[in-house]
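Running this now, will post back.
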Amino acid sequence: VKTVMIASASSMGRELVEEDPRAGELLPKELVLSSLSSESRSSDELAIAYNNRGQIKYLKVDFYGAMDDYTAAIEAKSDFEVPYYNRGLILYRLGFFDEALKDFQKVLELNPGFEDAKLGLKQTLLDKEEKQRRLTKRPTLET
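Update: finished.
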């Protein structure tokens, strides 16, 4: 259910960004928090709100802002696997393979059936090994 909710929110976020490039700015932390009444605010809702805002920032290519929101989602609900996966993808794409591996491993600890996380973990391991190979085969300059 969480993944479906996130997936539909993600596509809504893409439409929102296409309609108004300021979309991520329209959802500051205070608005995310105030949109949830104190009676209905739960760690689940807060984590989903931060994750969704992170998706909007990701679509705007604000990777570090998106990672901040995914981290806030994790802080709100540490057993919510989706923001770990989303943050892991960004870390992978930025070349921070060790950090990405930790996030993908956490996703699989929380949800062993998360197929995309399995693929992300496998690809991160392969790319990390390839990077290590390239670094060790670098020609040295002799003077």
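The radius of gyration is 18 Å. More later if anyone needs it.
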